[in-house]
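In the laboratory, one determines a bound structure by crystallizing the protein with its ligand and collecting diffraction data. In a computational setting the workflow is compressed into a single prediction: the sequence and the ligand go in, and a structural description comes out. We illustrate the idea with 6-O-phosphono-beta-D-fructofuranose.
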Amino acid sequence: MTQHIGVLTSGGDCPGLNAAIRGLGKAAREQYGMSVKGFLNGFRGLAQDQAVDLDSAMLSGILTDGGTILGTSRDKPHRMIIGGKETDMTDAIIATYHRHHLDALVCIGGGGTQKNALRLAEAGLNVVTLPKTIDNDIWLTDRTFGFDTALQIATEAIDRLHSTATSHERIIIVEVMGHRAGWLALESGIAGGADVILLPEIPYEVSKIAEAIRRRTHSGKRFSIVVVAEGAMSYDDAGEVEALVKARDQAETKKSRSEAKDELRKFHDEHVGHTIRLTRNLEKLTGQETRLTILGHLQRGGTPSAADRVFATWLGTECAEVLHQRTYGVMLALQGNQLQLVPLNEAAGTIRQVPLDHPLITSGRRVGTTFGD
Ligand code: F6P
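The predicted complex, in structure-token form:
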């Protein structure tokens, strides 16, 4: 009996998605004789039955392309905006799944996708997931694809910014992505020889950063590079978030919980500009010209690195074998140098942050990098 599988990409795009789709599609079709359908724009395509046949023509020539041939979105199955209204589309998704006689659905995505895929698994669908995100922050896997490419892009940007930093004797602040986890800031900062690295996991004190920069100046180094994760926070801001989270978690009524959630959302919306404030403050405190570069979506664009192509292909082809074995409700994870199957309900819902005793933090400190604490 031919196995019918569906695949979608969800959440932010990242380099390597097409390599994963290709690896999965080719192995599923050519090794196991499966039929493979792609659903467009994440869970929305599944809810609205927008499907394409992933035939050999569709799967050819995409290995080196950035983005995703299937399109993506941040839509959630249970809270999708349809006609301007938030709607639970779980039943529509289940109907599409059965209409296409699917035996299983592969969801390729980040932390949010793992949670949404789990919801569908709990609703009775056979689901397997692959971990992607430039943030490298999915629980139970040592790596996610997309990270290596983003790391290269961020590192190259830091290298190039050194020119202006040294020529003008400036402080250059580079904001990289990473709201809740600082892997990209940590590794690009170390690779780029940053003097200061600020992570969401370690609250910072601007005065301590200024002090470290002044020490560099006194030792004759007239420029500094500061790499900041977009989610890094000062001690004051981190304290405020902690209080807001506590208020949300301890709210006794639906109304007060919703108000606390709104407050928290407002805080995070306003926090977006924090690197602009940091730039002004550092300039004021050090008296040195300071400039900010926000790398933004550049980090997610373009052709995947060789390492991401290899890893995404491996995940995709191994996924076909897992589907062939009819093993469901799992995420494929890299642990050490092996791919393992981890239960989706264990992988979903936890963010893999940088542990404070991580060897790379120690290594950074040993080469004189300041973490702002
Ligand atoms: O999840 C990946 C990521 O690139 C994060 O690093 C970043 O905070 C977020 O997506 C940006 O999301 P969007 O592209 O939806 O603005």
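The pocket of 6-O-phosphono-beta-D-fructofuranose is lined by residues 12, 74, 110, 133-135, 177-179, 230, 300 (CB under 6 Å). Keep in mind that any predicted model is a hypothesis to be tested, not a measurement.
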